Amino acid sequence: MIKIKVPATSANLGPGFDCLGLALNLYNTFYVDEIDHGLVIEGCDKEYANEKNLFYVSFKTALSALHQTVSGVKIIFDSNIPLKGGLGSSATCVIGGVLAAFAIRHIKIDNNDVLKIAKTIETHPDNIVPALLGSVTASVIENDDIFYENFSVPDIYEFIALSPDMELSTEIARSVLPEEISLSDGVFNTSRAVLLALSLSKGSINNIKIACKDRFHQNYRGKLIPGFFDILDFADKNGDIASFLSGAGPTIMILNKKTNTSLKDKLQCYLNDSKMKWKIRTLNIDTKGATITVI
Ligand code: HSE
């Protein structure tokens, strides 16, 4: 049996729409075994225990790209990442499924090959790249390839993930975005995305608040999430480094200094008064990315 553990991810990081992302120490784990025939899926809701399951689709897509087959497969899910929550649960299935195909056929894993297949399933790279590689990543899709870098950051940050009791599909969250942006908004975001990547890696905390501002997506998507703008305002007034929508949402990510120990409790008190229920997780960067163990 093969065990594949894939980290949650937070994409966009404010201005880095569809290009910046990072991996977090919250995981989905998948156990995969070849069986005589058919498909057995355990550990997930019944509605996902079928051939349309994203992990299975990714596994089959990769097997086909590798010119391989299996007689049958059993997949057991051990999931901790909320579905449609903005923490990369889909990317864990895509990366997990593709890696499972390589591993079950003992094919040497090449990150470029894995990502090339993964991007045919999840077409923006900012979750799948950090899910595979860990740390913070910048990535670009050009034709059939993904070009990427991952880089480490100093151990001064923590990520307070605020997840409301609602789901928001990426499809819906993308449908509210404008088709075109102005040159000035393009400059606004690209300049900040570059400054953000450099400042995160160097620990230049004073740049990060400005660098996390965005004009591509948050103003549109924030309206879909009750309390979004007020929560960002509250976190700002209580000493966050910066706050932003995690991926397509609805999770809100508060980037905090590890030394600012009171912020989580203040957020908890603030959200207790909210009409919605919120799950609060304090997370750190995962530096390993996806791991495979034969058990
Ligand atoms: N960059 C993507 C988006 C991430 O914001 O739509 C969600 O998968």
From TrEMBL:
An example GO biological process term is: threonine biosynthetic process
Say which domain of life the source belongs to: Bacteria
Where in or outside the cell is it found? Cytoplasm
| The protein's annotated pathway | Amino-acid biosynthesis; L-threonine biosynthesis; L-threonine from L-aspartate: step 4/5
**Domain annotation GHMP kinase C-terminal: ranges:** 204-262
Q: What's any one GO cellular component for it?
A: cytoplasm
Q: What is its EC number?
A: 2.7.1.39
Annotated GO molecular function terms are: ATP binding; homoserine kinase activity
**Residue ranges of domain GHMP kinase N-terminal in the record:** 61-134
Q: Where does ATP bind?
A: 82-92
Stored InterPro entries: GHMP_kinase_C_dom (IPR013750), GHMP_kinase_C_sf (IPR036554), GHMP_kinase_N_dom (IPR006204), Homoserine_kinase (IPR000870), Ribosomal_Su5_D2-typ_SF (IPR020568), Ribsml_uS5_D2-typ_fold_subgr (IPR014721)
Keywords attached to this Swiss-Prot or TrEMBL record, sorted alphabetically, are: Amino-acid biosynthesis, ATP-binding, Cytoplasm, Kinase, Nucleotide-binding, Threonine biosynthesis, Transferase
UniProt cross-references to Pfam families, sorted A to Z:
GHMP_kinases_C, GHMP_kinases_N
* Annotated Gene3D superfamilies: 3.30.230.10, GHMP kinase, C-terminal domain
Under catalytic activity, the entry for this protein gives:
L-homoserine + ATP = O-phospho-L-homoserine + ADP + H(+)
Primary localization = cytoplasm
Q: Which family does it belong to?
A: Belongs to the GHMP kinase family. Homoserine kinase subfamily.
* Role this protein plays: Catalyzes the ATP-dependent phosphorylation of L-homoserine to L-homoserine phosphate.
The protein's name in its UniProt record: Homoserine kinase
Q: Tell me the gene name.
A: thrB
